[in-house]
């Protein structure tokens, strides 16, 4: 079996660089929420409009994405591009990713607002943490939009079919499917931004955004993982298997939505030709695995439904490898 290290994936770390502990024991829900609330309150408050110097001009010599994370990296089309064109393509792909991030975080906020509305106790610590997480998501989206403005490029809108799907957000089943989607959005953003913090060749605006994003993202991921484990353990084997199948399908398609085909026009490549080359490169497959690695590993680690042997066989192991 291919290990995550074969694709350049580095295990998740805390904002301080320490190892993330994978708890087998799920802590009390209210205790966990209270601890994470205090952790957030102990951090210095930041304002994305003030803590990043948005008026500073971008450095023309620095990248907007690491070259190896650009979709065409390693292809013949990539070899034909000049260094300036490669940086330009990276900038357009970053804008596409940030736009998708705004849409995805808005969907996550909708699901969390649903949790608040359906909560049995709207004044407990778990609900307060959920509201604080919604505030963090809004703040992150503000930073994303500011960074798009800093690039000088217009945002890429979601393709029409995906925009239609966003309207069905609140139809996502409560429980493992909704929590799994939230975890996927959080983990993908964290994984893609984590490596930028220590990269001196990345635009300063983006590095600062990545640093401000790290701490709240770590709290959200910890809370969502715990909730997902609770939701899995409280449901029967058939329902858990169906949720796993649905989430596996979303994970398999998630990375493909990050780069809008229109980005290739910026360097004189037809969108269809660029997209066709991108999905066939080793870099694309490697980056897709990097972006979704922590969620796929978590799905493998999540306890599988127990019961009749025939029930266990319908869990989709291959889709989360």
How does this structure look, described?
The chain is mainly alpha-helical. It has one domain (61-320): Orthogonal Bundle (Ribonucleotide Reductase, subunit A), CATH 1.10.620. Helix content is 59%, strand content 0%. It starts with 28 loop residues before the first helix and ends in a 9-residue tail after the last helix. The model is unreliable at 1-12, 19-25 and 305-321 (pLDDT under 50). This is Diiron oxygenase. InterPro entries: AurF/CmlI, RNR-like.
Write a compact overview of the structure shown.
By secondary structure, the chain is an all-alpha fold. The protein has eleven helices and no strands. The chain has one domain: Orthogonal Bundle (Ribonucleotide Reductase, subunit A), CATH 1.10.620.
Question: SSE layout and pairings?
Answer:
Layout: H1 29-42, H2 76-80, H3 83-118, H4 125-151, H5 160-166, H6 176-194, H7 204-233, H8 237-254, H9 271-278, H10 282-301, H11 309-312
Helix pairs in contact: 1-4, 1-7, 3-4, 3-6, 4-7, 6-7, 6-8, 6-10, 8-10
Mean pLDDT, all residues: 81
**CATH T-level topology:** Ribonucleotide Reductase, subunit A
Specify the CATH homologous superfamily. Answer: Ribonucleotide Reductase, subunit A
Main pleated sheet:
none
How far do the termini sit from each other?
9 Å
User: What is the general shape?
Assistant: globular
> How many beta-strand elements?
0
Rg over C-alpha atoms, rounded to the nearest angstrom: 20 Å
> What is the second-level CATH architecture?
Orthogonal Bundle
Under CATH at level 1, the class stands as Mainly Alpha
């Amino acid at each position: 079996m291919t290990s995550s290290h074969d694709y350049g994936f580095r295990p998740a770390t805390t904002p301080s660089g320490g190892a993330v502990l994978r708890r087998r024991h799920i802590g009390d829900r209210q205790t966990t929420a209270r601890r994470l609330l205090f952790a957030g309150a102990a951090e210095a408050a930041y304002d994305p409009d003030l803590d990043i110097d948005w008026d500073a001009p971008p450095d023309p010599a620095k990248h907007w994405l690491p070259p190896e994370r650009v979709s065409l990296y390693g292809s013949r089309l990539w070899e034909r591009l000049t260094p300036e064109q490669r940086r330009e393509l990276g900038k357009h792909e970053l804008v596409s990713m940030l736009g998708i991030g705004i849409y995805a975080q808005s969907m996550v906020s909708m699901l969390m607002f649903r949790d608040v509305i359906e909560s049995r106790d709207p004044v407990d610590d778990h609900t307060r943490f959920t509201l604080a997480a919604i505030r963090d998501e809004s703040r992150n989206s503000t930073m994303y939009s500011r960074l798009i403005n800093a690039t000088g490029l217009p945002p890429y809108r979601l393709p029409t079919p995906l925009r239609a799907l966003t309207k069905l957000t609140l139809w996502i089943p409560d429980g493992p499917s909704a929590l799994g989607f939230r975890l996927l959005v959080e983990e993908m953003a964290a994984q893609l931004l984590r490596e930028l913090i220590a990269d001196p060749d990345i635009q300063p605006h983006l590095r600062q955004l990545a640093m401000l994003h790290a701490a709240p993202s770590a709290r959200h991921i910890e809370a969502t993982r715990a909730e997902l484990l609770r939701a899995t353990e409280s449901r029967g084997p058939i329902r858990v298997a169906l949720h796993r199948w649905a989430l596996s399908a979303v994970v398999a398609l998630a990375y493909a939505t990050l780069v809008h085909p229109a980005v290739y026009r910026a360097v004189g490549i037809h969108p269809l030709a660029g997209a066709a080359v991108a999905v066939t490169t080793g870099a694309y497959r490697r980056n897709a695995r990097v972006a979704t690695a922590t969620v796929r590993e978590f799905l493998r680690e999540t306890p599988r439904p127990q019961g009749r042997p025939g029930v266990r066989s319908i869990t989709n192991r291959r889709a989360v490898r």
